[in-house]
Amino acid sequence: MSPQIEFRIPISPTPDFYERVHLFCAALRRLETASSKNLVSIVVGDGADLSRTRRDNFWAEQYEVKWYRVPDEIFAAYSYHGTADFRYLLPDRGADLVILVDADTVLLKPIDQDFLWMFCDQPCIAGHMAHLPAPFVPTAYSSLQPNDLWPFLFREFSITWPERLYEYSLKSDGEVPPAPAYYNLGFIVLNQPAVRIFRENIFPVQDKLRTLIDSYMSCQIAVTLISYLHATRRTNLPAIFNAANDLAHLNHNRIQPDQIKVIHYLRTDEIDKHAFLTDQRSAFFNSTLRNPVNKLLQKLVRELLDERGGD
Fold this sequence. Notes:
This protein is α/β, with parallel strands linked by helices. It has a single domain (about 5-130, about 180-200, about 230-305), classed as Spore Coat Polysaccharide Biosynthesis Protein SpsA, Chain A (Alpha-Beta Complex). The protein has nine helices and twelve strands. The chain is globular. The mean pLDDT is about 95.
């Protein structure tokens, strides 16, 4: 049995984002079979003109892509956080599972059989632990210290402190205490009961959260709070489902390149994710890369362009 999966991606209406979601869709198509077709929903913020977006992305007609525009009032109130969080409010497309992915991710291997355990009535979520604790500035209780963030938030939201805590995926030196399940938003899997819970709670939680702290990671923080508030069944995924192009992350998690299922090319020391598919495409192809994740990405893009005739 292959589940119907819907991938939801937040972007801004710019050429580099369009090229990255094109790459995502082309790589995903390679993994599909007759019994495994995937849906892609792309959420566009920044007051996008969807008619123009569709004209600029005629390639999307060959994939199961739907474009959605973030309502002006949500973007005005929440900025790019609203673009990410509006994904929970999208119409149901009939998928068994919804996977939240960033635009700087790409699948290398099939994943549809990895999440069959989520076929149940209980809300379920799966993700890979964030690299590091969330940076923040208190908007209340100015004496709040970094290591006290999670206990503070759990008290403010009246959440029972969990018995089991986890190490961050890039930090285990003893200086940073373990944390509740706090997932990197580059790849998070939800079943439909969980999607319904997040749809109802994401903006109320965000509204309360920003009275307490200011953090550009508030979307990730909100995922943790909602999952614990509603007794969601959680599974921490290994790094192969969210393999950063970060040598420290690779080494810390003992990732073998041939095991990677999902690349998350968020680091820019060797490649510029905003330009490697546009202005710097030739330089990207001709670069001698050291990072094995970047090498996999380079190989994938070359192969996909060869299949498309080099366009």
